[in-house]
Amino acid sequence: MNTPGEAEPPSSRLARDSLIVGAATILSRLLGFARDVLIARLLGAGPVADAFLAALRLPNLVRRVLGEGGLNAPFVPLYLAIKAERGDEAAKRFAGEAASRLGLLLLGFVVLAEIFAAWVVLGLAGGFADEPQTLALAAFYTRLMLPFVLLTTLAALLAALLNAEGRFTVAALAPALMNAILLAALLFALFRGGDSHANATLLAACLSLTGLAHLAMILWRLLGIGLPRPGLRWSPDMSRLVRTGGATLLAASAAQLVLLISTQIASTEPGSVSALYYADRVFQLPLSFFGVAMGTVVLSAMAGERSQADHDALLGRALALGLALAIPAAAALYVLAEPIVSVLFENGQFNAADRERTAAALAAFACGLPFALAAKVFGQVYFVRRLPRLPLIAGFAAVAVAAVAGFFLLGWRDAAMIGALAASLAFIVQAALLGLNLLQSGLWRPRWADARTILAIVIAAVLMVAALEAMIRPLLSALNPSQPGLWRAGALALLCCTGAAVYAVAGFLLGAFDAVLPPRLLRLRGASVRTPRS
């Protein structure tokens, strides 16, 4: 613990805030995973399930792009710049103007979408044009879900205000609350029974209720620091936001566009869309933990730094922290793809062929995980400096690479695996473009300590992989699908815990965590590896 009056080290604060946001995001993802399992059990297959899941695409896209930090990129740097230049009152006035304008824009969009709901559905699932009954159901569910778009986007903007003020916890926990409400509705529907249409109607209505809960939770937290006053005045600050905000938001959404391309690639082969979906759900767990934390905490921290040296040090620490988690996670997902998919999904209608297809897609996704994280971290430098042009170009390049890779590789392997591989190639290109331009433009001057830390991370991850490979063979019989579920889950947990322990010890001794460890642990590591005098 720091002594009284001693400021908390920036590296420790960065790690702590990232851990809070990442843990809250993981909780939301796990609740969302349970939600999907219950939806499948409640609605099954058929036109009602197809219509509901198609209608759910728009709220899911809005939540992923805006509700998980997407609005931070255009809003936080400008808000903090106004606060530094003209004070807290001017910054709060700007936040009120932005919220009011965004609210009016969203209200107009929701009204039009309510009127033309069928056309919205066709934009998301064009195949429903030949299925009028399913299209009508999807349009009905979409109308019930549209208030969610208004409410959660407003909540996301106000959450960006909280993040700018360094208040991360409540904003990070809000998505978990939303999934908890949906889980409660699902359990109620399962207990009550009834036909699938009635249950889908209940869930669609409850989704909008979760948006209201999200907004209420953020407003409650804002009471502690002062609510921004609504205002419709068009100020020069709003002009600055509009000038860079659209491009910044689009650039921050590149990863979601890449995943949409992957879905289109997988849709060319029956059964591959579901395999890609299951693989993506597992891939999103570590990516959300690191990516959302980096895009929320690092952006706010960088926006508060003034000197180039501070930016360089913070970027190095953020990259080291992200890669210290992403590289071993990617290695573990690649090596353990098949056991993970088998334990999580192989049951009932999910057979061995589905396991192999999904595991191949998960392994392909794992190859791109560190690069997706690096692109997220690098992008924050451009967003802080309100320079969205290069991230926008890199985002478009990533989407183009995914599309071209899918076109040329399709037919070589299973479509789900090709879709995931195309996404990984896109993430590699995006990270390379952003990182190389940072170096060439002088926006980042890496330190030797950062390179040494990343090398230590890689070596520790290699040792972890060796330990996992040595353990897999003795545990193959325990992981067999014919074994009881708890026995298989225990074997997988043993693999994961052993791998994590090997990586943690090796990384600690090699100095892989020096960028984020508090000084007392660094002294402890130094003492543990120091050769005793004779």
From TrEMBL:
<keyword id="KW-1003">Cell membrane</keyword>
<keyword id="KW-0133">Cell shape</keyword>
<feature type="transmembrane region" description="Helical">
    <location>
        <begin position="241"/>
        <end position="262"/>
    </location>
</feature>
<keyword id="KW-0573">Peptidoglycan synthesis</keyword>
<comment type="similarity">
    <text>Belongs to the MurJ/MviN family.</text>
</comment>
<feature type="transmembrane region" description="Helical">
    <location>
        <begin position="282"/>
        <end position="302"/>
    </location>
</feature>
<dbReference type="Pfam" id="PF03023">
    <property type="entry name" value="MurJ"/>
</dbReference>
<keyword id="KW-0997">Cell inner membrane</keyword>
<keyword id="KW-0472">Membrane</keyword>
<keyword id="KW-1133">Transmembrane helix</keyword>
<feature type="transmembrane region" description="Helical">
    <location>
        <begin position="314"/>
        <end position="337"/>
    </location>
</feature>
<comment type="pathway">
    <text>Cell wall biogenesis; peptidoglycan biosynthesis.</text>
</comment>
<feature type="transmembrane region" description="Helical">
    <location>
        <begin position="451"/>
        <end position="472"/>
    </location>
</feature>
<dbReference type="InterPro" id="IPR051050">
    <property type="entry name" value="Lipid_II_flippase_MurJ/MviN"/>
</dbReference>
<feature type="transmembrane region" description="Helical">
    <location>
        <begin position="102"/>
        <end position="128"/>
    </location>
</feature>
<feature type="transmembrane region" description="Helical">
    <location>
        <begin position="140"/>
        <end position="161"/>
    </location>
</feature>
<feature type="transmembrane region" description="Helical">
    <location>
        <begin position="197"/>
        <end position="220"/>
    </location>
</feature>
<feature type="transmembrane region" description="Helical">
    <location>
        <begin position="416"/>
        <end position="439"/>
    </location>
</feature>
<dbReference type="InterPro" id="IPR004268">
    <property type="entry name" value="MurJ"/>
</dbReference>
<feature type="transmembrane region" description="Helical">
    <location>
        <begin position="168"/>
        <end position="191"/>
    </location>
</feature>
<keyword id="KW-0961">Cell wall biogenesis/degradation</keyword>
<comment type="function">
    <text>Involved in peptidoglycan biosynthesis. Transports lipid-linked peptidoglycan precursors from the inner to the outer leaflet of the cytoplasmic membrane.</text>
</comment>
<feature type="transmembrane region" description="Helical">
    <location>
        <begin position="357"/>
        <end position="378"/>
    </location>
</feature>
<feature type="transmembrane region" description="Helical">
    <location>
        <begin position="38"/>
        <end position="56"/>
    </location>
</feature>
<keyword id="KW-0813">Transport</keyword>
<feature type="transmembrane region" description="Helical">
    <location>
        <begin position="492"/>
        <end position="517"/>
    </location>
</feature>
<protein>
    <recommendedName>
        <fullName>Probable lipid II flippase MurJ</fullName>
    </recommendedName>
</protein>
<feature type="transmembrane region" description="Helical">
    <location>
        <begin position="390"/>
        <end position="410"/>
    </location>
</feature>
<keyword id="KW-0812">Transmembrane</keyword>
